[in-house]
């Protein structure tokens, strides 16, 4: 009898160990996720494509709709996945979802997105409905100051808080938030905005942010989606708002308003991987980039990802193109314009000599295109009417402009005034900083250069304070090389997409001309398109 009891006890003990081991194995196989109340997530693309595959065991804590899990209240709950094999066998898997209290502040950003040091700022916070008041903490290179939100308006399940401030400082700045809790102010964790004050002219490579015009452009091109949806061009890729991608296992807010989608986009453009990768690329390679150039590259990178910055033919071509000593293009091409300075007019002759026939009499102050420089006292020219001939050089004032020009560097420690005309009597447009690089558009004209700044301002500066560097065309890439490589990014899934080509054309319009119009289909600047387009 005792032997039987001992055997029964041994069997029961063995079963206990087996069950315990099985329980531990099951517990170890349960994946855990954490959400804040109000947030959503999806675990697998399969769940989004098969809505019956995943269910919640406690809808009060988390609910599941079309594969999307939403956190409804603080607590813990399990979701169950059911798979049926081809042979009819059923496999189950459970996922544990832990729900924390709602985030007090979801997003912080500033308007405008790339402010100047002297420009007024609007600080914006998207806060939970339970938050009464918000206080902003702004940290600049001159210290920290506070700003109380004076506006509060509802937006969906949140409230938008705004404060208007006059910034102090330069370079990078950070905005954080505190919320009122009784008689105290509590810091909001894991929620901040990193911004940059944009100088009017920058002599050295610097961290940048996209302009508000670029943000509006991206919003128009991406389109608005209030709920998570599959991307129209990329299979098994999902996004929300204005093209904000969502990965499996990552928390996001579903059913968003346009204002919340805007806040999400601004935060991604400033603090997301694409912005960090692009700024690191610019700084690491010592590139000087204008605002419209940065905007174009930001739109391109937001649309396609940052992969091109590390390994692509476009990366190679762009670096060579930018590192050529020109702010606009690569190979120097002169455009010479002559002005008739003889009050009696000037004869346009068939050849370089007075004995040749007269084709026309050019009027005083008439302008002609100079086709070749002084040849034994004569210039070969073309009139606005298309007549070609020779003029006596003595009575023709010639100015040379470089369509792909040389670079000038300001060598005055006090800076250099950019003026409207060729005299100190002319109004100063701006003051260029020491070591600032500008594009030289004309040869030295009575002690003055015509120049273009990186910000696009055109004017005149005193030649004695500008050192002109010769253009190095060795190992150069032309504008056409860059355009060709850029326009190749027009495919999705290996298939040519006309809409992507049009967006690339528009981004080139932004890059070269500061033109943010959404009319790429017109190709109004006549970029050379791929043969198959």
Structural class: alpha+beta
Characterize the biggest β-sheet: 9 strands, antiparallel
Number of strands: 33
Mean pLDDT: 86
Proportion in β-strands: 35-45%
User: Helix count, per DSSP?
Assistant: 9
Q: Between the first and last Cα atoms, what is the distance in angstroms?
A: 91 Å
Question: Could you walk me through the main structural features you see in this protein, from its secondary elements to its overall organization?
Answer:
This protein is an alpha+beta fold and 533 residues long. 23% of the residues lie in helices and 37% in strands. The chain has 9 helices and 33 strands. Strands 19, 22, 23, 24, 25, 28, 29, 30 and 31 form a 9-stranded antiparallel beta sheet that branches. A 4-stranded mixed beta sheet has the order 1-7-6-3, with no helix packed on it. A hairpin with a 2-residue loop joins strand 17 and strand 18 (244-246). Helix 3 (212-222) runs parallel beside helix 6, helix 4 (258-271) runs parallel beside helix 5 (273-284) and helix 7 runs antiparallel to helix 8. The radius of gyration is 33 Å and the shape is elongated. It starts with a helix and ends in a 20-residue tail after the last helix. Residues 17-28, 325-332 and 471-475 have low confidence and may be disordered.
Keywords, separated by commas or semicolons:
alpha+beta, 533 residues, four-stranded mixed sheet, nine-stranded antiparallel sheet
SSE layout and pairings?
Layout: H1 2-29, E1 31-36, E2 40-41, H2 45-49, E3 54-56, E4 62-65, E5 68-71, E6 75-84, E7 90-100, E8 105-111, E9 121-128, E10 134-140, E11 143-148, E12 151-155, E13 158-165, E14 172-181, E15 184-196, H3 212-222, E16 225-230, E17 238-241, E18 244-246, H4 258-271, H5 273-284, H6 291-304, H7 313-323, E19 334-340, E20 346-349, E21 358-362, E22 367-372, E23 378-382, E24 388-392, E25 396-410, E26 416-419, E27 428-432, E28 437-442, E29 448-452, E30 458-462, E31 466-469, H8 479-487, E32 491-492, E33 495-496, H9 498-513
Parallel strand pairs: 1-7
Antiparallel strand pairs: 2-5, 3-6, 4-5, 6-7, 8-9, 9-13, 10-11, 10-14, 12-13, 14-15, 16-17, 17-18, 19-22, 19-25, 20-21, 22-23, 23-24, 25-28, 25-31, 26-27, 28-29, 29-30, 32-33
Helix pairs in contact: 3-6, 4-5, 6-9, 7-8
